[in-house]
Design brief:
Length: 296
């Protein structure tokens, strides 16, 4: 009986506290979450339904965007493949036309790439898609440049120079799309050297050597360029690397022996023989500063 009275007294004294949560206003009402088994009513059910519809709509929009992007990629890939077929058949005019179209065309998916930062998964997909498109453009630019270089050999005077300059620009575009192709850096450097752009040639050869430090042809051309412009320090570094991979290269051996103008008089082992070198000339190809100015 005493327990009954005590509980009755407690209930009577705490009437204000024991009111249902539905009567509370402000943040208490906003933060109220339904218990398991409770049914959502009125505005709550409407809000949940609206959110579900929005989520479904966003997923559908993403799927449609992905399908459209993949369709565009497939179309570009097909154009590049067709252009390559024309080039192999010797149909240069048709190949050039298609390659040019691939390089000019801007995809619809690219115009909306900046608006997907809030959706990480979609953003990653767009970035991956961009890599695919850039690789296709790399193929188009490098192969179009190759065609123009071939045409320049039979073109008269200024027309040939214009074709080479256009090819040079395309090789620059190609390494912008994919900077990891040693062969394209070699083509870019060789053409730049041929057209008298020594800064660009030096930059291209050095970038190729960063990717492939023992590339014999690149080392030989880089060495010859350094000798021709009077860069004795880097000429010595290139000669040492060249002599290590190609003992038959007379230019590198002569430079290190000091028999070429400006050649090193230092001590270095070449096969079974010794010559001299100073400690200050211990420079690796990887550390060569490639360019004195910007590449235009």
């Amino acid at each position: 009986a005493e327990e009954g009275v005590g509980m009755g007294s407690q209930a009577k004294g705490s009437t204000a506290i024991s009111q249902p949560c539905a009567t509370l206003g402000g943040f208490a009402a906003l933060n109220r979450t339904p218990m398991p088994g409770n049914k959502l009513v009125g505005n709550e059910r409407s809000a949940v339904g609206h959110g579900q519809r929005e989520g479904a709509g966003a997923r559908k929009s993403d799927e449609e965007s992905n399908w459209a992007r993949e369709a565009e990629e497939s179309a570009v890939r097909l154009k590049v493949e067709n252009a390559m077929k024309h080039a192999r058949r010797g149909e240069a005019a048709k190949a050039k036309e298609v390659f040019e179209e691939v390089l000019r065309r801007r995809l619809k998916s690219e115009s909306g790439a900046g608006a997907v930062g809030a959706n990480r998964q979609r953003s990653d997909y767009v970035m991956e898609s961009g890599k695919v498109i850039n690789q296709l453009r790399f193929v188009a630019a490098s192969n179009l440049a190759k065609i123009l270089v071939g045409e320049s050999k039979n073109a008269p005077g200024d027309e040939g120079l214009l074709l080479k300059q256009r090819a040079l620009d395309l090789y620059v575009d190609a390494v912008g799309f994919d900077s990891g192709a040693v062969v394209v850096w070699h083509h870019l450097g060789s053409l730049a050297l041929e057209t008298g752009n020594l800064v660009l040639a030096r930059f291209a050869f050095s970038q190729g050597l960063l990717l492939s430090p023992t590339h014999r042809v690149l080392l030989a051309k880089y060495f010859d360029l350094c000798v021709s412009i009077g860069d004795n320090c880097n000429a010595t570094a290139a000669a040492r690397r060249l002599a290590a991979v190609d003992l038959s290269h007379l230019g590198a051996r002569s430079w290190l022996l000091g028999t070429l103008p400006g050649g090193s008089k230092s001590r270095v082992r070449l096969g079974a023989g010794d010559v001299t070198r100073s400690a200050s000339e211990e420079i690796g190809i990887e550390t060569i500063k490639a360019s004195c100015g910007s590449v235009e």
